[in-house]
Amino acid sequence: MKILGIDPGSHRVGYAVLDFPESNPRTPNLLSYGTIEAPPKTPSPDNLIQIKQELVKIIEESKPTAACVEELFFVNNITNGMRVSESRGVILLCLGEKGIPVVQPTATQIKKGISSKGNATKKEVRLAIQMILGLKDLKGHDDSWDAIAAAYVGRSLLIATDYRGYGQLSKKSSKT
Fold first, then answer.
1. Which of the ends of the chain has fewer CB neighbours closer than 10 A, N or C?
2. Cα–Cα distance between 70 and 75 in angstroms, integer?
3. Tell me, what's the pLDDT at 90?
């Protein structure tokens, strides 16, 4: 099972691809991680086009079995929240067009799933990832670390929801 984890943002989207080998699914392999970045003041829809183009490349190169996209759950700044929602829409559209099943946990669920604490700090999340994956260090932005955590937690959520049947359900419902 190959999971694409995504931490949405309006101008910076974290992504990570974890491979969970059947022989040892508790120790996934980190295949890639990083960020998709549009310059901060790039207007919509230009930022969304860039996010879509780069995400499509990542999907085509990594060929994930499923995806885990962090849910937007609380926003102090409504304008920023709307922009992140636009980005999430583009991300979900890309995944849907490729027929990739998606789970959408909250940040609290992801933090709890990776570190056993729903209110874990960025440092605690990073340390948990390093321990689980056996990494000495993680480079880059914390958005990419959040995406690694999402991919890791996404596996158990996908198994719990029997993701193999997801595509069949969505295909049947689209014909009605």
1. C
2. 14
3. 97
**Is there a catalytic annotation at residue 46?**
no
Query: How far are the Cα atoms of 30, 46, 54, 158 from residue 21, in angstroms, in the given order?
Result: 11, 38, 26, 15
7 as an active site residue: the answer is yes
β-sheet bridge partners, residue 13: 36
Q: What is the Cα–Cα distance from 31 to 103, expressed in whole angstroms?
A: 20
Question: In the structure encoding, which two tokens stand for residue 81, read together?
Answer: 């929240």
Q: Report CA-CA distances (Å) from 154 to 40, 46, 102.
A: 29, 29, 9
Tokens linked to 94: 């890309």
146 is catalytic: no
Residues of the chain with pLDDT under 70: 74-75, 162-176
Are the C-beta atoms of 125 and 116 separated by less than 8 Å? no
pLDDT over 90, % of the chain: 75
Catalytic residue among 37, 46, 61, 70: 70
- Return d(Cα 39, Cα 16) in angstroms, integer: 21
For residues 56 and 130, give the distance between their C-alpha atoms in angstroms, rounded to a whole number. 27
DSSP helix/strand/coil, 158:
helix
